[in-house]
Amino acid sequence: MSERLIMLDVPGVLYSSRSEARLGGIPDTGTLRDVRFFDPVALGFVRRLFGLAGARVVVSEAWRRGVPAAILQQLDLQVEGMTPDVPGGHAARIAAYFAHRPAPQAFAILTCDTASMQDPQYAHLLPHVVSVNPAEGLTPGNFKEALDMLGVACPSTLCLDTQPDARVEARLERLRRLAKEAPARFEVGTVAAPLLQAVPTLALPARRTEKLLAHA
User: Fold this and answer.
1) d(C-alpha 172, C-alpha 154), whole Å
2) How many alpha carbons lie under 13 Å from residue 119 in its C-beta half-sphere?
3) How many degrees, rounded to 5, is the angle at CA 138 between CA 51 and CA 107?
4) Who's near 216: CB < 8 A, 6+ residues apart?
5) 109 in Cβ contact with 9 (< 8 Å)
6) Three-state SS across the chain?
7) Which pLDDT tens digits describe the chain residue by residue (216 residues)?
8) In Å, how far are 24, 100, 142, 211 from 83, measured between CA atoms?
């Protein structure tokens, strides 16, 4: 297990009311066309988090199979594990995840489901919660708070603007074009290997990552 984890609650964090207004929808069709509705700004912040902190991501069980799994592969979020599908909201899923493995040295919970965190039995999770406003999605303030929870200082040279990450935006744009030019390839049950291979996997350049860590 990684020494640092990002417990990622996707709705309200990687897409929001603000990104819906900008992109024209939310990822709720159940097809690979959903990739066009993920917020490239929020995705860029998450990628910076695991690039700077060496953290890995944990998402819910719902992303394990089928089209959601294919989307997750395309978003390249460095996923290490999945929280079990249990009732009680994001807090209950995280508690169930850590019931079967030790909690890491540091972890940050990125979620807009703050209501489930108020249950007294999950009080131990509260110091790790980064409360995300679902109207805005992940913000520079959320990014800094999460980085602090992961035990890494924010480099003074890091520019936290709200412009889309260029590499993520290019990847999403490529997928948008594929969805428009060949929509049949994006239907449920037709996620083919050639489609997934059409967009190369993104990775943070090693030198860039080392440079950022050197400033941490």
Assistant:
1) 27
2) 11
3) 50
4) 52, 152, 153, 154, 155
5) yes
6) CCCEEEEECCECCCECHHHHHHHCCCCCCCCHHHHHHCCHHHHHHHHHHHHHHCCEEEEEHHHCCHHHHHHHHHHCCCEEEEECCCCCHHHHHHHHHHCCCCCCCEEEEEECCHHHHCCHHHHHHHHHEEECCCCCCCCHHHHHHHHHHCCCCCCCCCCCCCCCCHHHHHHHHHHHHHHHHCHHHHCCCCCCHHHHHCCCCCCCCHHHHHHHHHHC
7) 568 999 999 999 999 999 999 999 998 887 777 888 899 889 888 988 888 898 999 998 877 776 677 777 777 788 888 999 899 999 999 999 999 888 888 999 999 998 999 999 999 999 999 999 999 999 999 999 999 999 988 777 666 666 666 676 776 777 667 767 766 655 544 443 333 333 333 333 333 334 434 444
8) 30, 10, 22, 32
Two structure tokens written together for 48: 């910076």
The structure tokens listed for 136 are: 């805005």
